Prior knowledge:
Layout: E1 4-7, H1 13-21, H2 29-45, H3 47-58, E2 69-70, H4 72-81, H5 84-102, E3 109-112, E4 118-125, E5 128-132, H6 141-154, E6 158-162, H7 172-181, E7 185-187, H8 191-200, E8 210-212, H9 217-226, E9 231-232, E10 240-245, H10 251-262, E11 269-274, H11 277-290, H12 297-307, E12 309-312, H13 316-326, E13 330-334, H14 338-342, E14 350-353, H15 359-364, E15 390-397, H16 400-416, H17 420-427
Parallel strand pairs: 1-12, 5-6, 5-8, 6-7, 8-9, 10-11, 10-13, 11-12, 13-14
Antiparallel strand pairs: 2-7, 3-4, 4-15
Helix pairs in contact: 2-3, 2-8, 2-9, 3-8, 4-7, 5-6, 5-7, 6-7, 8-9, 10-11, 16-17
Amino acid sequence: MDIRRLDSLDSDFQLQLDKLxxxxxxxxxxxxxxxxxxxxxxxxxxxxxxxxxxxxxDGLKAKNLAELEMPLERLREAYxxxxxxxREALEQAAARIRAFAEHQKLESWEYTEADGTLLGQQVTxxxxxxxYVPGGKAAYPSSVLxxxxxxxxxxxxxxxxxxxxxxxVVNELVLAAAHVAGVTRVFTIGGAQAVAxxxxxxxxxxxxDKIVGPGNIxxxxxxxxxxxxxxxDMVAGPSEILVICDGKTDPDWIAMDLFSQAEHDEDAQAIxxxxxxxFIDKVVAxxxxxxEEMPRQQIIDQSMNARGALIKVRDLDDAVAVTNYIAPxxxxxxxxxxxxxxxxxxxxxxxxxGRYTAEALGDYCAGPNxxxxxxxxxxxxxxxxVYDFQxxxxxxxxxxxxxxxxxxxxxxxxxxxxxxxxxxxxENRIK
Length: 431
């Protein structure tokens, strides 16, 4: 393996770091053009366009879109048909995700001032959410749980899942996860046409308020392009992991933690920060030995060589500074007193505390969501959660007394902005 090695004390370190982190947009001109055509067709032609694209891209022939809606009984059959250990794993993961989500619920609140003014915030759930799930040979039941359960906890009543089934290939684990999570409708369609159907609505598929879930470049581009018509969770880039290690953890553990992200795809990014140069050498030796055991060896090798890095830092404070600049999706603090060090972290999607907390636990069953900000967007965004499926409405209620007093302030400011009707509207309530 030929992994890039950097030193934070080098004069060109910042330049090299920026080069390492650089990532092209998840969309390109060709994708934008193609997706734009698909969105326009679905918006104008509804069901017929979705049927045409499903036949063209997935080889699915149907007389009408209703034929591509999967009965909920089929989800139950999938659940009953999978191995007992798989059912148990889904149920345990779902219970943990649900318990964590319950702590995230925003509550309505209000207060009344001395003059009788009532102010507050009313929290309500979205009405209908669309969940995109990759299909075919890809199996991401964990993503079904992570994207669906927070919406259910938030109180969303309709959860419509779209999942492509190219040439009729169906993944039973995905269907079982949908049963466990509480999906209310399922359509076996995918790609940009599925995103368009959810965003604009068709004769058969109702328009949703928000679309969540991962997909390929065409799905990501479609989500980006329909944003504004509907909400979206995020436009995610390749998966990332950053590990800070003081040199006291088993190097085999660290090597495998880095591999756990690198095996996603060739564009995934795995970075190690350590003040111990000899430990970095040990991790390299572990990786060179352990990669021979990996079924996805080629993908890991390409990922580590193209976008991975081993960075020697001055000390842990320096590691924190570099980490806050990188703003990683996943951050492992494989150090003593990890909880204390975490207080210095300002930008990270999820923080894994201590030597025993593998990032993979967060992917599946720890409880917090695994839908996380990538490509340095953790500087300004957060993991998917219940709050992403809730809305806040402001409450304002005036008594006769407070309307009179506030009216004087509003009138002055309105006239300062040259808005006569605003001023007179407020002045009507002045005693």
